[in-house]
Design goal:
Structural class: alpha/beta
Protein name: GDP-mannose 4,6-dehydratase
Shape: globular
EC number: 4.2.1.47
Order of helices and strands: EEHEEHEHHEHEEHEEEHEEHEHH
Catalytic activity: GDP-alpha-D-mannose = GDP-4-dehydro-alpha-D-rhamnose + H2O
Number of strands: 14
Bound molecules: the ligand C[C@H]1O[C@H](OP(=O)(O)OP(=O)(O)OC[C@H]2O[C@@H](n3cnc4c(=O)[nH]c(N)nc43)[C@H](O)[C@@H]2O)[C@@H](O)[C@@H](O)C1=O
Distance between the termini: 19 Å
Pathway: Nucleotide-sugar biosynthesis; GDP-L-fucose biosynthesis via de novo pathway; GDP-L-fucose from GDP-alpha-D-mannose: step 1/2
Strand content: 5-15%
Helix content: 25-40%
Radius of gyration: 21 Å
Strand order of the largest sheet: 1-4-3-2-5-6-7-12
Cofactor: NADP(+)
């Protein structure tokens, strides 16, 4: 989908939009948003949300030999369709400061959402330097690009930093904006640095910069190596007979799991306030991984104990045992509330992954792939 650059700026830009999204026709000039991490779960939901509000949405994507735009393919519109194509993609990287400043100068966004990350906690123990470079220093590079662009141009840019409940780490619940951080992984420590860089740029330079401290948020678009999606993908395949076992780590960890589609609205609301601030976004309900297994397997009439085996390779060197947010500030100030609860979220994910497994089964039965392959 994305076109290779031939050196001219317009050719390096791919433009996307949605036929399926009801786009508001604003009476004022369109607002312009820039999203890092647009190809991720949150980036795709935020793009849909902002297009629905009448924004022009620009996304920064990393160069890869394979396209990784599956989550936004459904909102693709050919760039030649100039009036309809309101989503545009540009090659850049949080590790490349010059690319960040250049795209800010070209796009001149009203709002910047920094969602990009190496976001897998367990993987951050394997690639700690890279995680810190992207998550911590990457946020600093983007803040500095925003600061220098606004100083030079006199324009105002509102900045959203994707923070994480992982920053609370071993501090017991309920966790709110005033709860001390005690990070338990390179990922979490990097998110703490990004959080404080954002606070510092707000205090030092008067930047309109907000931290959203989001608790776990899932969806049918969740990456397949996060525990919820790993479970629902395997469950679908077990149900249709493509596999029998699911290998997991610590089942006693408790998380406050919400729906990603609900959480992107909170990000946007933070940037619509008069003053920049930091907010916890959470459902205020916690469930263990084991409870997730109970509800998901139970929904398809299966007993998880017949299928789940513990593999110590999925234990983390330091675990975060218990996360449960106190979102009262977001509720009061932003007027935000989550719409999708735990059971509905689980069912939404299982329903989709059962359909995917049924399609895989057809391919296996027709001899196109082996049962152990996941296309
Ligand atoms: C808010 C926060 O949310 C996410 O981080 P996470 O909570 O680490 O998410 P997860 O789904 O990888 O793990 C949840 C729990 O599940 C346990 N667990 C057991 N067995 C497996 C297992 O087999 N795989 C995985 N991945 N986890 C397992 C694991 O030990 C942990 O206790 C990211 O979006 C992060 O970017 C972020 O910011």
């Amino acid at each position: 989908m994305a076109s290779e650059s031939n050196g001219s700026r317009s050719e390096s830009v791919t433009t996307l939009n949605s036929d399926s999204i009801a786009v508001e026709m604003p009476s004022q000039p369109r607002k312009v948003a820039l999203i890092t991490g647009i190809t991720g779960q949150d980036g795709s939901y935020l793009t849909e949300f902002l297009l629905g509000k009448g924004y022009e949405v620009h996304g920064l994507i990393r160069r890869s030999s394979n396209f990784n735009t599956q989550r936004i393919d459904h909102i693709y519109i050919d760039p030649h369709n100039v009036n309809k194509a309101l989503m545009k993609l540009h090659y850049a990287d949080l590790t490349d400061a010059s690319s960040l400043r250049r795209w800010l100068d070209v796009i001149k966004p009203d709002e910047v959402y920094n969602l990009a990350a190496q976001s897998h906690v367990a993987v951050s123990f394997e690639i700690p330097d890279y995680t810190a470079d992207v998550v911590a220093t990457g946020a600093l590079r983007l803040l500095e690009a925003v600061r220098s662009h606004t100083t030079d141009s006199g324009r105002i840019i509102k900045y959203y930093q994707a923070g994480s409940s992982e920053m609370f780490g071993s501090t017991p619940p309920p966790q709110s904006e005033t709860t001390p951080f005690h990070p338990r992984s390179p990922y979490a420590a990097s998110k703490c640095a990004a959080h404080w860089y954002t606070v510092n740029y707000r205090e030092a330079y008067g930047l309109f910069a907000c931290n959203g401290i989001l608790f776990n948020h899932e969806s049918p678009r969740r990456g397949e190596n996060f525990v919820t999606r790993k479970i629902t993908r395997a469950l679908g395949r077990i149900k249709v007979g493509l596999q029998t076992k699911l290998f997991l780590g610590n089942l006693q960890a408790a998380r406050d799991w919400g729906f990603a589609g609900d959480y992107v609205e909170a990000m946007w609301l933070m940037l619509q306030q008069e003053k920049p601030d930091d907010y916890v976004v959470a459902t205020e309900e916690a469930h263990t991984v084991e409870e997730f297994l109970e509800v998901s397997f139970g929904y398809l009439g299966l007993n998880w104990k017949d299928h789940v085996e513990i593999d110590p390779r999925y234990f983390r060197p330091t675990e975060v045992d218990n996360l449960k947010g106190d979102a009262s500030k977001a509720k009061k100030v932003l007027g935000w509330t989550p719409k999708v609860g735990f059971e509905k979220l689980v069912k939404m994910m299982v329903d989709q992954d059962l359909k995917i497994a049924e399609r895989e089964k057809l391919l296996v039965d027709a001899g196109f792939i082996a049962a152990e392959q996941q296309p």
